[in-house]
Amino acid sequence: MNKQLVSKNLLISYSDLGKKDSSISMLFLHGWRSNKEVWGTVSKLMSQSVSKSVNIYSLDLPGFGGSQNPKAPMTVGDYAEIVVEFIKKLDLKNTIIIGHSFGGRVGIKLAATHPEIINTLILVDSAGFAMDPNKRIVVNTAAKIAKPFFRPKFMQGLRKAIYKHIGAEDYLATPELQQTFVNITSEDLSVDMATIKCPTLIITGQDDNDTPVEFGDLMHSIIPNSKFVIIKDAGHFSFLDKPEEFINNLLKFI
Question: Which letter does DSSP use for residue 32 in this model?
């Protein structure tokens, strides 16, 4: 069921699979340029697997899906505070955070700054390290330099391929969030990772080119009390490529 609430003066769209008689909640956080619907298959399968023992929620982070665009550029910490207020308003207890990619960044910040409200952290093909400085320069200037060149319609396919190659596609695809994107990808969360106290499961698709296995391995070496799992024949959306294997690993951990 899709619902809405206000968190930090922003209208947030979220879904739940029905309130159950449970003191445990799962909260799914999507990646950049995604939304809560990406978790649909997994959340439904998870609901069937855990029966009535867990409440399951997913939300659209500000700027995505049905949630309101932020009124000013945001940081990872700002997004984390949105989630904190969401958890408090719904009075979620023993919360398990499952964050994919950018949602994993938010989960890391949340676990580091508000350990009292997180029971378990699941990082799925998670981002968390700063983008290469040279690539950030390219991202910041690509639109200005290349826009006139790519204006003709017949150049749009080439435009997308080149932007993807230089890592600027996400930046250009969300013009209203460009400074937010720069803020987020510029922040290295290594220090935050080292302070995480809750049990943490790191899941990475073996063929993930966006947040490769090396990222997950490095996170595992930094985050105390963490476990690292690699899902074979899966990419950046490992939970969609191998949903049953993803769920089995999650259930074993929690």
Answer: T
d(CA 33, CA 31): 6
Beta-sheet strand order (sheet of 226-231):
2-7, 10-16, 55-59, 25-29, 95-100, 118-124, 200-205, 226-231
Classify the phi-psi angles of 8: left when phi > 0, otherwise alpha if psi is within -120 to 50, otherwise beta: left
Which residue type sits at 242?
A: K
Nearest to 96 by CA among 72, 73, 122, 76: 122
- In this structure, the strands spanning 200-205 and 226-231 are parallel
Least confident of 20-24, 35-39, 94-98, 188-192: 20-24
The shares of helix, strand and coil residues in the chain, as percent rounded to the nearest 5, are 45, 20, 35
**196 and 109 housed in the same domain:** yes
At 166-183, the pLDDT tens digits run: 344 554 456 678 899 999
Whether residue 108 sits in one domain with residue 22: yes
Domain that holds residue 165: 131-186
User: Phi and psi at residue 181, in whole multiples of 5°?
Assistant: -60, -45
Same domain, 113 and 234: yes
Contact 16, 44 (CB under 8 A): no
- Note the pTM of the prediction, 2 decimals: 0.84
